[in-house]
Amino acid sequence: MQEKDYTLETILNAVFKISNHRVKKRFIFDQSGLGGIGVKWIIAFFISLPILLYIGLFNETVFSMLGIVQAIIFYIVFLSMVIILIVTIIFINNNKVIRQTSPSWQKIFPDVDFKLVLASGASPYKDFFQYYSEAIEKGFKGDALQEHLKKAFKKMQEENADLLSSIDKDRQ
Questions:
Q1: How far apart are alpha carbons 100 and 27 in whole angstroms?
Q2: Taking the model in full, what pTM does it have?
Q3: Helices 8-15/68-108 angle, 10° precision
């Protein structure tokens, strides 16, 4: 399978959400720009699962066979299975987006680990959201956005050189 090159905007729109010039990491990454299913369809599917389960268990035919106690127990058991399914689908979806976009990210920013940018914990790139928000406020797109982020990454790498060297040592 041939790797597809994605633009910086496509990559960032897949994993980040912009609202009021503030950048937030998406809980469920959006594949619509990458040729996949949009996040709104995934959320609609997640919302429909418990409703369909309720309809399936508490309809007249099944409810008369099970009774109230068994129907409630089945609903709780199957709902826990639905929750496990939802968590699994989110995990698979997010990993697929990261796998798909990482080669393009490495071409744009070869010395910046994409997973560290997305990391929630201590990361040398913890201020990325601030710099990206700043770029959005200034209206940067294309090459201007890329140059702004390159400067921001260099600044973050300089500020967090100790943490970055520790991470590099740990990987070896």
A1: 17
A2: 0.82
A3: 160
Instruction: Return d(Cα 36, Cα 9) in angstroms, integer.
Output: 16
Dump pLDDT digits (tens) for 32-82.
Answer: 888 888 999 999 999 999 999 999 999 999 999 999 999 999 999 999 999
* Domain positions in the chain: 1-108, 110-172
Structural element, H or E, at residue 25: strand 22-25
Residue 2 has pLDDT above 60, yes or no: no
Whole-angstrom CA distances from 163 to 11, 18, 22, 159 are 25, 28, 26, 9
Tell me the two tokens of residue 47.
């919302």
| Long-range CB contacts for residues 93-98, cutoff 8 Å, separation at least 24 | 93/28, 93/29, 93/31, 93/42, 94/28, 94/29, 96/31, 96/36, 97/14, 97/15, 97/29, 97/30, 97/31, 97/34, 97/36, 98/15, 98/29
pLDDT in tens, 110-132: 888 888 888 877 788 888 888 88
The first and second tokens of residue 14, run together, are 């897949």
Closest residue by Cα to residue 16 from 132, 153, 121, 113:
132
State how far the Cα of 112 lies from the Cα of 167, in Å rounded to an integer.
Answer: 12
Predicted local confidence at residue 1, as pLDDT = 45
